[in-house]
Structure formats: structure tokens, C-alpha cells
Amino acid sequence: MAGACEFRRARRPEQIEARRASILEAAEAILAERPLAVITLRELAGRVGLAKSNVLRYFGSREAILLEVLDRRWRDWLDDLAPALRAATPEPVPYGRAVAVATTVARSLLARPLLCELLSAMPTTLEHNITLAYARDFKARAAAHSARLRDLVLAELPQLGRDGAARFAGAVVVITGGLWPHTRPSPAVARACAELGHPPVEPAALVEGLVDQLIGLCVRLS
Predict the structure, then answer these.
(1) Model pLDDT, residue 29
(2) pTM for the full predicted model
(3) Among 209, 201, 163, CA closest to 185
(4) Quick one: which of 95, 106, 171, 189 has the fewest CB in 10 Å?
């Protein structure tokens, strides 16, 4: 229990931040090993050698911890997306620039399955066991991420206008979050779909979904 005592002695801001960082690092490590849905607060606390009550002093819930991981991953994705969009080559098709932008966004998301999983769990699970104060803080950060994506898309497709780019940025989160669970069916559902001759939902469907969304916006706003 020495670790728990040491944790309780953290008082200075830098100590508190170090403790929070250790918890988030543990969460990242577990998420690399196990599905989000089965991870418990007890497991998170055990990974850093703490009691659950100690973890809750720095994060009000398991969900708040996972939302912090989402915030990190969201920010890192946007950092990498910016140069990727600038380097994207327009496709030799109508609305080729829009196709290239949407395809780049989709493929960069597909390269980050944990981000996709966290986005899909955000409205259905992760935002349901947090305080009002934390909800305000997290949603402000989420809005900032969406605004940053809006600006990245607007720089590539100025004809969309600010509102059009914002609509696409919002749709990226909704479409990714809605599609992703269907690409990870349970064994029973996967077998039932196979028996019924229903084709599986492939992750690559995200490319088509975002391309259709962005071309549609370009057509409507042109």
C-alpha cells in the first residue's frame, strides 16, 4: 500500500499532473490490450497500484479517464492530419479535390482504430457518467477539435464556406462513431449475417461515407 500513500501525498500542481499522467498512461496501455467495453475502474486502478478512491480524486469516473484519452488521441490525429491534407493529390474525377480531402480524412481515421472506438463510445457510454463541470470542459475541447478540423477542410476547399466546412467536420465524428461498431460485430452477429448472406460492414466504408458527404456539401453549396 506504499504506492497509495505516496499518491495521497501529491499536493503540488506538478505532482498532481504527474499522478494524472500515470493514470492516463495506464489507461492507454490497457486500451491497447483489451476492448474499451470490458475495462473497469478497478483494473485501471490496479494497473497503477492504487485504490479506486485514489483514482477518483483525480478523475471523477472511469468514463472521464477514457474521455481524456480520447481528447489526447483526437488532438494527435489533427496534428498528423494537417500535413496529410496539404499533401493530398486531387483525384482525376469530378470534385477531385473533395474526394482527396475526404479520402485522406477517412484513411487517417482508419489508421487509428482506438480513436474510432473512442468516438463511437463517446455519446453512448463515455458521456453518461461524468459531472456537469467535466461535461462543460470536455465538450468545449471537443468543439475546439471540430473547429480545427473545420479550418483544415476550409483551407483545402474554400468554396464550402465556414458553415459548410463545419457541417462536414461534425459529420466526420457522427459517421465515424456510427459506422465503427458495425465493423466489429459480435461472433454471433457475424455468423448470423454470414448465414443470411449479408455482407459484412468493412472499415473502408468510412471512405465512401465521407466522400459522399463532402461531395454532397460541395454540390449543395456551389
Answers:
(1) 92
(2) 0.88
(3) 201
(4) 189
* Contact predicate 108/84, CB 8 Å: yes
pLDDT at 4: 41
Helices (H), 88-111: 96-110
Residues 67-88 as b or e (16 or more Cβ within 10 Å = b):
bbbbbebbeebbeebeeebeeb
CA 185, CA 191: separation in Å to the nearest integer?
9
**Residues 6 or more apart from 31 whose CB is under 8 A from it?**
39, 66, 69, 114
Contact 119, 177 (CB under 8 A): yes
Q: Is 94 exposed, middle or buried (0-12, 13-18, 19+ CB in 10 A)?
A: exposed
| Residue 145: closest CA among 77, 52, 56, 191 | 77
